[in-house]
Amino acid sequence: MLPQYYISLICGIGKLKFLQELNIDLRDVSGYRIKELENMNDLCELRINCLENVKNAEEACSAKLRAKTRLTDLTLCWRNTDSRNINLDENVLDNLQPPTCLRNLSINGYMGVRSAIWMNVLDNLEKIELSDFLECESLPPFGQLPFLKSLELRNMPKVKWFESKFNGNDKYLAFPSLEELHIDGLEALEDWFEAGVAAEDGCLFPCLIKLKLENCPKLKELPSLPSKLKSLQIRSTAWKTLNFCSNSNPIPLETLWVQHCPNITSLPLADEIVRLAALRDLKITKCPNVISLGRYREVDTTNNCHLMLSNLSINDPSMLLMEPLRSIASLKSLRIEDNDEVVSFPNEAEQWFLKILSLPSWKAHLHFMFYILGTFLCFGNYRTFLPL
User: d(Cα 260, Cα 207) in Å, to the nearest integer?
Assistant: First the structure.
């Protein structure tokens, strides 16, 4: 079998019309144009690169993607060039409409201001990846796609919100099947939906398991964290707090990373100590204004509740003195990273280390690590190190 790279070099690839997988690089040369795809109706997976070489809407239409009724995976890529035409990009994308059977869609480097109209009718989509949409100002109402499980959006600096409804459709859904959401580099994103559309508590992302938000400095926090969420990573957002669900059910969160969030002053971990029994991996770094991790309720103190963390990463050692971290009873790995100022620990922190090191869970597998100015230091004799 030839590697995909060599297949893309074949002139007149359209003659191999029974291919099921194809990765093609378009060129402004006969035999390498998008029209080669016209009769390749057995394709199941297709990646089209160098779409900037498509001359007009008619040429794009000649690919006849909509007729490829076996197509389940489609990737469309433009390369950044100095002579890109926004209107041409929009016309080309409009005429690359795939069949409704499509499951996975990835688009990279599109320079249009609006999204394609056909994105509103692909009801069978399960996974969407969009990246480097430098001019796009709004996103289609992906929340109405009934089977969408994974959504990844990267580097879309002008998008301010998601559209909430399809044109002419009053039905409002909120990502009913979405399990994974990753948003990175949506610098203008202010809210989840346009003005006047509120995401009600418990109705947004009802199936979400993994949420990762990076470099969204204006994004408002969710009204509440999704009830099935197991992994939450936020970095460089405008969030001020975490809003856990208002019901009394256990919170299934296993991983919580909060990084570079200067607006956060408090994280309600102690407040929800009983419901956070699943939390194992906690990272809080570069959040200089965090002064509290919540308060125990009297009943929680009586029941001697603790976080059952396995891994803890921080950059400020004084955080070890905050509840509920100072009462951790199960820690296996501690990292103090991105801190080039630590030369010693206060006496209270020393006592914390001595207590943790005496726990049975640390005797079997103990990892104590410092990341200072990018240098990895591992200390084997922990007790002699403590009294710095």
Answer: 27
- H or E segment to which residue 357 belongs: helix 347-357
Which pair of tokens denotes residue 373?
A: 């100015």
Question: Between residues 4 and 315, which one has the greater pLDDT?
Answer: 315
Nearest partner of 125 among 112, 108, 109, 107, judged by Cα:
107
Helix (H, G, I), strand (E, B) or coil at 82: coil
Rounded-to-integer distance, Cα 258 and Cα 289, Å: 12
Residue pLDDT, tens place only, 156-185: 999 988 876 644 444 556 889 999 999 999
Q: What is the arithmetic mean of pLDDT over 358-380?
A: 46
Q: Is-contact 281 307, C-beta < 8 A? A: no
Cα separation of 150 and 161, whole Å? 18
Q: Are 241 and 221 in contact (CB under 8 A)?
A: yes
Average pLDDT, the chain: 84
Computed from CA positions of residues 208, 241, 322, 382, in that sequence, does the dihedral angle turn out positive or negative? positive
385: amino acid identity, one letter: F
Q: Of the candidates 114, 204, 104, 129, which has an alpha carbon nearest to the alpha carbon of residue 159?
A: 114
Contact yes or no for 349/317 (Cβ under 8 A):
yes
The token duo for 171 is 């039905």
- Name, in order, each residue with C-beta under 8 angstroms of 335's C-beta and a sequence gap of 6 or more: 311, 312, 313, 314, 369, 370, 371
